[in-house]
Design a protein that fits this description.
Shape: globular
Strand content: 5-15%
Number of strands: 11
Largest sheet: 3 strands, antiparallel
Radius of gyration: 22 Å
Helix content: 25-40%
Length: about 400
């Protein structure tokens, strides 16, 4: 999924199993370093760098282990930072912008709740509370044409149009009065859900940098580099930010998302920017959350999502399974797609494991299937991959299928 960094970069968890090659057309991609038997665990348990659960499922899904019980909620016994005592997030300062709002976090039990807080930090709860306070309580009606139908604006998005839109935002943030006005922006559900993903990513980056200053390792379920989302000595944030950017491809497919993205930035800048006095955890070593909320960083986080994110699907995975949200697993993003993959992904809670589906020879590329296209015909597969991942699949299966003579 990526096209940068040097060739032959070894992932740090199992360097004897696989390595990364860089291709000018296919980007960075995993290859087997040695012959691998079926069911080889390639990367261990990979943890996401950031994620979001869609609002419609948020009070039905554990924020830590992502358990979902078909819409039933009885198993969720904890919410936000409640019942953690004097040292819990309830001590965090509330503000007029966040007072009374919940953070939108539900947990199976205290174990899941504490695991989430240990990793994300107590300050993240307060940040999410303030963000949820900016969510529209009632959707605003869309403008309609004289014919009574929703107005459709057709626009061919170019890089120039994108840059011009962000230049307008940069111009606005030169005015302190304008930035203060951004604090009162009310986000639609899609915008608020995406803003949660951005906020958690930047908050994690902040904590990572603070821990580096103090000489402490980044929090995570494992000490292996792949499980913690690092690659070739890069930090977690640097690995995440190095993923292929698909901003323009997304905006060409859905032009209206450009306005959503600029509004997300304006809200984050207004509520959590450098002049807001809100840092989640207290600033240390000159670092603050506000300093990380820049146009460049927010565009990076938003641009990584399309083409790199993995859907958080209800398990066991079936035809009717619900997609509960999405997550970005940086190291896992270097698996390319094949319509007859030799690697399968398995979700265990919030982590993903990648296992070979058959014996793989040394030097062979290691591929997963994006989405669930294996059982589709050639035309359907091609449309699904082009619309969802912005590429025309030319894997060996698609080439062979295209070469088959058509029967009348």
């Amino acid at each position: 999924m990526d096209a940068s960094l040097a060739a032959q970069t070894p992932p740090p968890s199992h360097p004897s199993y696989l390595h990364i090659r860089s291709d000018p057309h296919a980007g960075r991609k995993y290859h087997a370093s040695t012959a691998l038997p079926e069911n080889t665990d390639l990367l261990g348990r990979c943890a996401p760098y950031s994620y979001t659960i869609w609002k419609r499922f948020r009070n039905e899904v554990c924020a830590e282990c992502w358990r979902y019980d078909g819409g039933r909620r009885a198993f969720l016994t904890r919410r936000d930072g409640e019942d953690l005592g004097a040292d819990g997030p309830r001590r965090s300062q509330s503000s007029a912008t966040g007072a009374g709002a919940g953070a939108g976090l539900y947990f199976c039990d205290e174990r899941c709740q504490r695991a989430w807080l240990d990793r994300e930090g107590a300050g993240a709860v307060d940040l999410l509370r303030q963000l949820e306070a900016a969510r529209q309580k009632k959707a605003k009606p869309k403008p309609k044409s004289d014919a009574g139908e929703r107005e459709e604006v057709e626009m061919e998005i170019t890089q120039e149009i994108v840059e011009r839109a962000w230049d307008v935002v940069r111009g606005g943030e030169r005015s302190a009065k304008e930035v203060r006005r951004w604090r009162s922006i009310q986000l639609e559900d899609y915008e608020a859900d995406m803003a949660r993903y951005v906020l958690l990513a930047l908050h994690r980056c902040l904590r990572e940098r603070k821990q580096c200053i103090h000489g402490r390792p980044s929090p995570g379920p494992s000490t292996s580099g792949a499980a913690n989302g690092t690659l070739g000595g890069l930090s977690e944030w640097a690995t995440f930010a190095s993923l292929q950017q698909n901003e323009l491809q997304l905006l060409r497919a859905c032009p209206q998302i450009l306005e959503h993205q600029t509004r997300i930035y304006q809200l984050l800048r207004g509520r959590f920017g450098a002049a807001s006095g809100v840092d989640g955890d207290s600033a240390a070593g000159g670092l603050s959350l506000g300093a990380l909320i820049t146009v460049a960083n927010v565009r990076t986080v938003l641009g990584v999502d399309p083409g790199n994110a993995f859907g958080i699907w209800e398990t066991p995975l079936m035809e009717e399974s619900e997609c509960l949200g999405f997550a970005v697993y940086p190291v896992a993003s270097f698996f390319n797609h094949h319509c007859a993959p030799n690697v399968r992904k398995e979700r265990e809670g919030r982590t993903l494991r990648f296992l070979t589906t058959r014996a793989v020879g040394a030097g062979q590329e290691l591929c997963i299937s994006y989405g669930h296209v294996e059982n589709m015909d050639l035309g359907t597969r091609q449309r699904e991959l082009l619309e969802g991942w912005y590429f025309e699949c030319k894997c060996s299966r698609c080439v062979a299928d295209a070469d088959e003579p058509k029967t009348s």
